[in-house]
Amino acid sequence: MVIFAFKTDTGEIRKNNEDAFGHYEDEFFLVADGLGGLPAGEVAAKLAVEVAIEVYKESKDLKRAFEVANHEIYRLSRENPAYFGMATTLVGVVIEGKYATLANVGDSRAYLINKSSINQITVDHGLGGGVVTRVLGINPEVKIDIFKNDLQSGDLLLLCSDGLTMMLTDEEIFRILKDSAKTKKAIEKKTKELIKAANATGGLDNITVGLIISPWQN
Ligand code: CA
Predict the structure, then answer these.
(1) Which among 29, 106, 135, 163 could bridge 207 via Cys, Cβ 3.0 to 4.6 Å?
(2) Residue 129's pLDDT band (boundaries 50, 70, 90)?
């Protein structure tokens, strides 16, 4: 069984949380960071997660799940003036034994952490400081980055919104996660620690973190 724990927090400054996360069984995991102001950002992020899960469940096709999510957000933003211009980032991972397949649009991130290092797997589509250059929902078509990784025993995957990575360096994230025990309880505690650390340095944005441990044993 894949062990996982997710947590989101509004942060210290924002009034609303426009991040979203979700999962399909212990197989497919997602984090989204909505853009476009209220209520649109919240709607876009939730919709991305819901639609991607629905499509993945039927098709087991990660890329298609992202494509349909993009198109649904785009369609709704055209139909409803309150949602005009809404968009979201979306990062997701499918775990199959020792294999992780990841998809990304925007500047939410996936990291792979082991005892000795932290490595960002996804490539940001953004300029930093919350400025994103590629998102779901703005165009009818979107380019989706796909990454494939082999997992080693004890590897930890982190999915997160930029509310975490704006506030903490990779080194600071690594310091919190490197000694984590591989239990549900331990990683639940680590999600809280990450959020606490991001809030302690200002908590300027919504913060979402998801930690996943594959069942793979060498
Ligand atoms: Ca954000």
Answers:
(1) 163
(2) confident
